[in-house]
């Protein structure tokens, strides 16, 4: 009878621990839900702002790479004049079309949402950091200080590079390329917006490579030694990524895109080395982690 009672008491204790763990898990889910709700509200606010000022955003930002007086085209032409070379882009005459009844209204909503998401990324990262921060030890918090700043900086650096370098070169090439003079290029507004958004956002995500390497190095998946020994393979992968990101076959565009990726890879090696150095601290220092 005593053994049966002990087993019963043990079962009740185990059940209590299980319920406590489940409650803790659901508490974390609830906390994460509110973090995501606040981030969604911020994105909706930015979306509403973009929707309200859409006329200026459309003509100045979205249609910027389709205009002949865009900053990139003027800068390339000025550089060419200084080097006594012709870097000036030919005149573009892009005529967009809409084939759907609600196409322009859908365009305004979709592009406003894309702008809202882009501007809301820093706040989303901050909410994610607020969620994971309590689970970190003091040394881990110290090591991860600046996560939101660096992730945001790299993302918008990639956005700017994609918007001012990759997008105008791709738009110019694709809009002026023709198989025959009998075919007139008249892309739909959805096709144009999709190209601009994909090239810009994809570059912003690619520029997060050092942050990704930091996480992988912290988990022990990536090491600086492995990255140095794999540099030749990384070069091939970078060239493939550059070819995918830039839908143009010319080597100049691929080279312009590849150079920042090579730099990011080398920076990622330095980041992985810093993480490894931190892991090789004295035992008494690691005991505080």
TrEMBL record:
The keyword Membrane applies. GO terms for biological process: intracellular protein transmembrane transport; protein transport by the Tat complex. It is found in: Cell membrane; Membrane. InterPro entries: TatC. GO terms for molecular function: proton motive force dependent protein transmembrane transporter activity. The keyword Amino-acid biosynthesis does not apply. Keywords: Cell membrane, Membrane, Protein transport, Translocation, Transmembrane, Transmembrane helix, Transport. The chain crosses the membrane at residues 36-54, 105-126, 147-166, 196-221, 233-249, 255-275. It holds the Pfam family TatC. It is a multi-pass membrane protein. GO terms for cellular component: TAT protein transport complex. Belongs to the TatC family. Forms a complex with TatA. PANTHER family: SEC-INDEPENDENT PROTEIN TRANSLOCASE PROTEIN TATC, SEC-INDEPENDENT PROTEIN TRANSLOCASE PROTEIN TATC, CHLOROPLASTIC-RELATED. Part of the twin-arginine translocation (Tat) system that transports large folded proteins containing a characteristic twin-arginine motif in their signal peptide across membranes. This is Sec-independent protein translocase protein TatC. It comes from Mucilaginibacter myungsuensis. The gene is tatC.
């Amino acid at each position: 009878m005593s053994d049966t009672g002990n087993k019963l008491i043990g079962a009740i204790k185990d059940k209590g621990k299980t319920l406590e763990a489940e409650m803790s898990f659901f508490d974390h889910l609830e906390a994460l839900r509110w973090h995501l709700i606040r981030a969604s509200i911020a994105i909706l606010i930015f979306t509403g702002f973009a929707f309200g000022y859409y006329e200026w955003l459309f003509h100045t930002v979205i249609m910027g790479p389709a205009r002949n007086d865009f900053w990139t085209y003027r800068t390339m032409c000025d550089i060419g004049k200084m080097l006594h070379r012709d870097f000036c882009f030919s005149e573009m005459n892009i005529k967009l079309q809409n084939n759907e009844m609600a196409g322009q209204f859908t365009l305004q909503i979709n592009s406003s949402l894309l702008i809202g998401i882009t501007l809301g990324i820093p706040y989303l990262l901050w909410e994610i950091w607020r969620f994971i921060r309590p689970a970190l030890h003091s040394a881990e918090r110290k090591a991860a200080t600046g996560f939101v700043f660096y992730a945001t900086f790299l993302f918008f650096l990639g956005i700017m590079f994609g918007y001012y370098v990759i997008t105008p070169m791709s738009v110019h090439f694709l809009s002026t390329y023709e198989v025959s003079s009998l075919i007139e290029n008249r892309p739909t507004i959805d096709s144009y917006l999709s190209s601009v958004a994909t090239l810009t956002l994809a570059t912003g995500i690619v520029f997060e490579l050092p942050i990704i390497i930091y996480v992988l190095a912290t988990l022990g998946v990536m090491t600086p030694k492995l990255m140095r020994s794999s540099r030749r393979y990384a070069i091939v992968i970078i060239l493939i990524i550059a070819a995918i990101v830039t839908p143009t076959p010319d080597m100049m565009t691929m080279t312009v895109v590849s150079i920042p990726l090579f730099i990011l890879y080398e920076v990622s090696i330095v980041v992985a080395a810093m993480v490894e150095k931190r892991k090789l601290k004295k035992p008494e220092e690691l005991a505080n982690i």
